Amino acid sequence: MHHPRHHIIEEVQGLRAIAVLSVLIYHIWPSALPGGYVGVDVFFVISGFLITGSLVKEFEAKGRIGILGFYARRIRRLLPAATVVSIAVALSIPLFPKGQWPDIVNGIVASAAYVQNWFLAAQAVDYLAGDTKGPMNHFWSLSVEEQYYIIWPLILFPILAVARKAGFDSRKAFGWIIAVVGSGSLAYSVFLTPRDPGIAYFATTTRAWELALGGALAVSFVKDALSSSLRAVLGLAGILGIAVASFAYDESTQFPGYAALLPTLAAAAVIASSGAQTPWSGSVLLKSRLFQYLGDISYSLYLWHWPLIVIYGEVTGRTPGLSDGALILLASCGLAHLSTVFVEDRFRAGSLPIGKTLAAGAGCIAATLVLGLSYLAWSDLDQGPVALQGRPGAMAMVDPRYDWRKEDILNVIPRPETAREDVPLIYKTKCHQEQRKSEVLTCVYGNPAARMKIVMIGDSHAGHLYPAFEELARNGAVYFRGVSKSACLFSLEAFYHPPFKRLYTECLDWSKNVIAWLERERPDLVLISQSPAYPETTLKGMAEAWSRLIAMGLDVRPVRSTPWLGFDADKCIATSKDWSVDCAPKRAVAFREDPVVKVSNALELRPLDLTKYLCDAERCPTVIGGVFVYRDRHHLTATFARSLSEAFRTELSLGTRAN
């Protein structure tokens, strides 16, 4: 399966098998191997070892590094198979709802440009990114490696050239460069991981030390001085270390940071064990026929497995179990075998000149981009809020003659496939505070001279109601200011924030700042709207924050949460045979136990309840009054929220409509 000139270190090839199996099992059955994501870190160490070793050998032999030749070899090795998978993903786009097409295309574009890790880093702090799993997300690690391949020789060559002229040993010069880059990257990773884990996980700057660790092993002579017995011990310890990390780590582990030291050092130990001759070494496993084969196809196997998992989930609407997961694994191996034999090995063994290789690489990237972008033109997606066009929306539910089951699902606004784009303007105008910051931002609508001055505070469940007040302000009924922050509970007690894997101190600081701001502004009415997804432990902090406002003499009115569907509304409409049953959950199920209601009762406050505008006595439909209600599982479309303006006018006794 390998080109004759392709040098293989069998222990490294077996280590590739361990890495790819860890990732596959984690992605297919995450509960079985909750820390299997460390397989990616093992790949980083391997890449650092092989690439740095190749560069230092070339420099020692020729006194230079052929940078364009190096790039050409990387293109032949990596780009053909990646292009095939990217095109396959592009061709699968029609299987997804049209509302997801832009995100998938963006993922294809970011992957083709090898900046997918930065694209996902931006999404990691974007509350609108949701929990959608893009079929190209796994290209983030390939992007890190490719950026390393591009930058590393450009850093090494001039420094090594100067070092040679000064009479320094090239390997020592390599070692010092690696030490500086690696230690700086590790320090930054340790610093950033607890503070901003979303960016820390994907950033090249926090991962470079893992590749540098492999590079350090490549230029070191320590490995050559190890006895066979010591190598055997290192190999077993390394395999055990990777296994411990794979089973002991999970989504709550602050990673990479210090935690990444275990799997990366373990991977380095396995590489250092190569050449052990003792019968009890880890080489027995690593050199086995199965592990060598899996190592051979590991690159293509990594490329294929994730799109298959995502497409399976999209088509079936469920996560893989034991039997279907096994089928996905077998299908991934089958495609990986074909891809390795007919794509990877064919191009790797090719003899195209460097110039033509670089041109072919550019052509592969261009073909992927053109195919992906063509879907955006085909989809003709409308973006952003749309006009109500005279439709009653929410107000239809309080009309005794109205029957939502008779709605024409083909004639609704926004169209279900574009509902994900129908978001409030607050995200475009950036007046909704992001997770990392604590300053008070305000979304302002209306004239300060209006009779009623209203402030609404909360998280995205406050923000998705702002279009209703934007409409009221436009008609002169209110002067409205929205004060909201992503995934943040208005509370005077910090709570654990899973994405940050620590206490959400930015939210606590924001809440304190909001209280100080309200004390200065003194609005006529303060509305509080929160998601119902926060833990029970937050009730005390919520009550304390609300009590502070009441003690100031402010009129505080909590807003009961809106329904939580348990499914994506657009997907349900696209696949259901009877939307009035499948896409209209029972009222008792759609309403979670709401902390807002509990705290309201404790403080003897009467919450504002919009339920009658969203549900009948039994169900909560996804289409009301000709308007599509939800843009995802629990956020309202901006168009439907706008139709709630009359509901707020009625419930808050804001008087008649202004002319």
TrEMBL record:
GO biological process, one term: lipopolysaccharide biosynthetic process
Highest taxon listed in the record's lineage: Bacteria
GO molecular function: acyltransferase activity, transferring groups other than amino-acyl groups
Alphabetical keyword list: Membrane, Transmembrane, Transmembrane helix
UniProt cross-references to Pfam families, sorted A to Z: Acyl_transf_3, SGNH
Membrane spanning residue stretches: 12-29, 35-56, 77-96, 148-166, 173-193, 199-222, 229-249, 293-313, 325-343, 355-378
Domain Acyltransferase, first and last residues per copy: 11-328
Entry GO terms, CC: membrane
Residue span, SGNH domain: 430-649
UniProt protein name: Peptidoglycan/LPS O-acetylase OafA/YrhL
Source organism (scientific name): Microvirga flocculans
